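User: Could you check the structure of this?
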Amino acid sequence: MVNQQVALSPVQLGSITIPTPVVLSPMAGVTNWPFRVLCEEFGPDGLYVAEMVTARALVAKNPKAFRLCRFHSSERVRSLQLYGVDPVIVEQAAHMVVDGQMADHIDLNFGCPVPKVTRRGGGSALPWKLDLFAELVHRVVSVCSTAGIPVTAKIRVGIDADHTTFLEAGHIVQEEGCAAVTLHARTTAEYYGGHSDWSRIGQLVQALDIPVFGNGDIWTAEDAAAMVAQTGCAGVAIGRGCQGRPWLFSDIAHAFSGNSERFEPTLGQVGRIMILHARLLVEFYDGDEQMAVHDMRKHVAWYLKGFPVGGSTRRAFMECESIADVEKQIALLPQEQAYPESVAAKPRGRVRYAKKVHLPYGWLDSRATSDEERKALFGDDPMDASY
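Assistant: Sure, the predicted structure tokens are below.
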């Protein structure tokens, strides 16, 4: 717990000014525009990044990929994250974003630890191959720089304790012209388990001239302040900590302005946020209430985390098929029930360790990709165009 005020200075990403450098990290299936809008309404003038869009799917004009690229008119900065392994495909996706004026900022995903991604050399596995990593970043920055669109990258510490990559990766993204880098202070092997090693963030801050955003285990506003105090990072990126708690951004804004006020909603207040979220999802899904309510189910579990509402109530929400069903269940909740402080500072979402790091055969034998490896990787992108 940090008691002293810790200040953050504005961060410049190309022509974009981030007055309060607090970032909503892209999370698959979570940070579509309805959730981003909720977070931005609560929070400071930060950066709210869309969930990862697969470059191959975008190039193939997959409808879901285009849905994920949608932004609400209220969003101040249209921030999009691209994922891919083949530099040519990611470059083509970047061209589509630039030519279609689809976003104001592009983030590149080199932090995903999910096996279906890393087993084909993507996400947090990719920086191990220095040539492939540098080429991909170079191609995207070259495309985006002509349009004045800043590019950033999100990375992890490395594959495991014996195969770290963050310092080399940080220098490469800086040299290739990225405006900033975000470090999730875990290895791929650590997945989301234990506590992230914030000292690694401090090391990267010392090694680079571009802004470094710290990510990992920010569950409260005090955690955000502590990370900045301990590492000197230019800003913080919030992932799992805001799941079911979009108001966390309000708390963090207060913390960095020296305000001790924290938002502690009653269950009734949480319910009203849930209804708004569900209605925004209906709009996101072009009026399809059933899709919206089904998508809302995971959010309901996070919103109700810690509240003693009982298993029957939770099951009832999982059986909802319309907004009316959701509103009916929310009306039955004890409206004045206080927010459960016991879970406020505890991990949310994924917390387990990965049992094994899945990599392409022979991936760790060399820091460069062979022709054979490239043929295998580029012929079958780890996340294809079908979604």
